[in-house]
C-alpha cells in the first residue's frame, strides 16, 4: 500500500511540535547574539589606494601600450606588496610584534578589472593600527618597487584614514542573529518531522489500516467525562418526560 502524507498531516505535525521549533529558534538566536556581542572581537578595516602609472613630463605623449603594460604589472605588484621583502620592512618600521605571514593574513590586495588603481585593505582589532599598517605598506612598496622592478610607476592615490567613530566590518551581530533564526527554524522543523517519523505508536485508525493492511469496519468514538454526564442528564430528562406522559394518561 502506497503511503501518502497530506498537507493537513504536515501542519498537524508542525502544530504538535511548535514548542520544540520555537525553543530551538530562540536558543539559536540567543546563543548567536551572546557570542556576537560579548565573545567575538570587533575587526576594523582601513584602505588605501595605489596608482600604477608612469610619471610623465609635459612633453610626453600618452601611450596606450604603456597603460597595458601597467595593467599587466598590477598582478605582479599585488604579489610583491604582500611579500616578505615589503612586509619585513613594515614590521621593523612600525615595531609590530608579528611575523610576515601573520601580517600578510591581515592584508587584502586587489584591483578592478582594467583599472590601474590597486586597493590595499588591512583588517585589525585596532582601527588606528589598521590605518598605520595600510599607509606604511603603501609607502614601503612605493619606495622599494624601483629597486625590485627597476621601474618608477607607483604613486599613492589615497591614504587610509580613521574616522571619529569607526564601525567594525565584523562581526555583524544582527546578521548573525538573523542567520541563526533561519537555521534554528530549519533545524526545529527537521527535528519535528524526524521525531514524528521515529514515533511508532498507533495514533489513529489510519495507522491501524496501514500497519495491518486491512479495511476498517468501524470506529469506537472516545467519550470524555463531560459527554458522559451530558448523556446521563439527557437520559434522565427523557425518563422524566415518559413518566409524566404515563401519569397524565
Automatic annotation (TrEMBL):
Entry membrane topology: Multi-pass membrane protein
Residue ranges occupied by any Polysaccharide chain length determinant N-terminal domain in the UniProt entry: 3-94
Domain Tyrosine-protein kinase G-rich, residue spans: 143-194
Subcellular localization(s) per the UniProt record: Cell membrane
Membrane-traversing stretches: 18-40, 77-96, 174-195
Keywords: Cell membrane, Membrane, Transmembrane, Transmembrane helix
GO molecular function, one term: protein tyrosine kinase activity
CC annotations in GO: plasma membrane
Pfam families named among the record's database cross-references: GNVR, Wzz
Family: Belongs to the CpsC/CapA family.
Protein name: Capsular biosynthesis protein
Amino acid at each position: 500500500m502506497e503511503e501518502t502524507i497530506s498537507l493537513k498531516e504536515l501542519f498537524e505535525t508542525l502544530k504538535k511540535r511548535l514548542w520544540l521549533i520555537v525553543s530551538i529558534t530562540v536558543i539559536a538566536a540567543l546563543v548567536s547574539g551572546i557570542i556576537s556581542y560579548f565573545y567575538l572581537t570587533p575587526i576594523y578595516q582601513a584602505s588605501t589606494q595605489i596608482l600604477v602609472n608612469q610619471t610623465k613630463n609635459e612633453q610626453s605623449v600618452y601611450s596606450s601600450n604603456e597603460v597595458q603594460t601597467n595593467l599587466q604589472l598590477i598582478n605582479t605588484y599585488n604579489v610583491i606588496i604582500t611579500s616578505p621583502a615589503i612586509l619585513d620592512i613594515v614590521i621593523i618600521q612600525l615595531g609590530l610584534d608579528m611575523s610576515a605571514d601573520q601580517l600578510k593574513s591581515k592584508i587584502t590586495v586587489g584591483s578592478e578589472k582594467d583599472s590601474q588603481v590597486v586597493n590595499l585593505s588591512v583588517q585589525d582589532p585596532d582601527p588606528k593600527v589598521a590605518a598605520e599598517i595600510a599607509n606604511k605598506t603603501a609607502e614601503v612598496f612605493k619606495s622599494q618597487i624601483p629597486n625590485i622592478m627597476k621601474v618608477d610607476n607607483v604613486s599613492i592615490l589615497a591614504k587610509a584614514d580613521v574616522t571619529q567613530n569607526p564601525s567594525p566590518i565584523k562581526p555583524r551581530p544582527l546578521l548573525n542573529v538573523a542567520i541563526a533564526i533561519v537555521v534554528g527554524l530549519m533545524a526545529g522543523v527537521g527535528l519535528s518531522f524526524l521525531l514524528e517519523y521515529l514515533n511508532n505508536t498507533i495514533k489513529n485508525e489510519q495507522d491501524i489500516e496501514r500497519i495491518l493492511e486491512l479495511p476498517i469496519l468501524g470506529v469506537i468514538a472516545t467519550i470524555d467525562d463531560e459527554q458522559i454526564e451530558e448523556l446521563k442528564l439527557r437520559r434522565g430528562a427523557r425518563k422524566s418526560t415518559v413518566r409524566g406522559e404515563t401519569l397524565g394518561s
